[in-house]
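Most newcomers find our protein records easier to grasp once they have seen one. There is nothing in a record beyond a sequence line and a structure line. Getting from the letters to the tokens is the skill we practise here. An example says more than a description, so a record of this kind follows:
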Amino acid sequence: MILINGQDVAIIEVKYKAHEADLTKLITKKYSNFKNLFPAYKDYRHHLVLATFHLYDDLKEQALQNNVIVLQRKGDMVQSYLPR
């Protein structure tokens, strides 16, 4: 999923249950493909996002360390975790 707003582009990987391979694929292959396929957005600020219902804490930390925003369902709400 891609969201575009002003000068920002969010490339979002949506999974029911996220795994390490999903994060790796987002950071490497999907982001690289986005840059190649949509050069018109090269001057925008790019944000990588992993949205999921279930996520292990170590994977969440790995995502945040790689500058990936995490969106995780908590009951009826969505909790966002921003990279430090």
Notes: The beta strands are 2-5, 8-17, 45-54, 68-74, 77-81. Residues 61 and 83 are 9 Å apart (CA to CA). Helices lie at 20-37, 57-65.
